[in-house]
Amino acid sequence: MDFLMGIDGGGTKTVAVIADRNGKVIAQTRVGSTNPNSCSKQELEKTFRELFHTLEVQVPTSFQKITNLFAGIAGTGNEANKIFLKDMIKQFVPAHTLIHVEPDTINALYSGTYGNPGIVQISGTGSITYGINKNQKHDRVGGWGYLLGDEGSGYDIGRQGIMAVLKAYDGRGPNTIMSQRMFTYFNKDNGHDFIQKIYSSPSPKNEIAALSKIVIQSFKQQDPEADRIIGSVIQEITHSIKTLYKKLFSEHDKVKVVLCGGIFSEKAIAELVKISLNDDPNKTVVLPDIPPVGGSLIGAYVMGGEHPTSDIIKNINDTIH
């Protein structure tokens, strides 16, 4: 029997799985970042060596029979990085293995569309809207990073929450229950110490994104300022989805819109996006059952010209950790 392999590579962790043709996952491992924009060549080689060695030790015979390998990896939006990573991966797998490298957004998309065309909205620390149409044309909206974009992300929500708190502290804006919660989160009791804590953080972006939980919690308790922030975020997300739909699909195409990322772990946020898109019957909002690495495994089927059956999808879902 032949075997397939999927890799979901991000900026902090990389997960990889091997499965048989029926979708049964037989090996899995997790290592560090494989983003070529944030790791040196030496670091990447070390990480990939660890990844493939760990999998080969688990299933040595099956490892030698891997035919298709789909690697969805962050930082591969340009052709040069795709070629670079493909050449690096080649040295660790059997010579007959076919290798396909794409951005990690494809993993997230396929985790909800199971290899079909569609749109994925990723809203975690950062954000991006990505899609593929029936002609295999890829396109995106957003994803320009926290300095110039990332609307609808955890960072965006946290940043707007901080601004509301500071305006309330100055007297320039209405009071909000977010103020005391954010001060308590950092064990501070005034705006000056609070903002110093953020500016002195080794990773301000992640520090700010973490505060999105306070904003969402306050929104659920009907705080007017938090409600305003979440409302603007939902508008940004749905506007990005509708914009990408116009770029990739005709007005009557029916597509799945997959919601991925930590922001959508709050079902209330996902439901608001769904409600916002209710006026368009051509868009069906989906919260995926399988993790992105399962999407990369589906990518391994698709690259071989196969469309995974419902039984294969079930097997992936049942056996992946």
CATH arch. level architecture of the largest domain: 2-Layer Sandwich
Radius of gyration: 21 Å
Beta content? 15-25%
Order of helices and strands: EEEHHEHEHEEEHHHHHHEHEHH
Q: What would the average pLDDT be, to the nearest integer?
A: 90
Number of strands: 10
Shape, per Cα inertia axes: globular
Number of domain units: 2
User: What is the CATH C-level name of the largest domain?
Assistant: Alpha Beta
Write structural notes for this entry.
- With 321 residues, the chain is of the alpha/beta class.
- It folds into 2 domains: 3-103 and 290-319, Nucleotidyltransferase, domain 5 (2-Layer Sandwich); 109-288, Nucleotidyltransferase, domain 5.
- 47% of the residues lie in helices and 19% in strands.
- The protein is built from 13 helices and 10 strands.
- The strands form 2 sheets. Strands 3-2-1-4-5 form a 5-stranded mixed β-sheet, with helices on both faces.
- α5 (154-170) packs across α8 and α10 crosses α11 (267-276).
- It starts with a strand and ends with a helix.
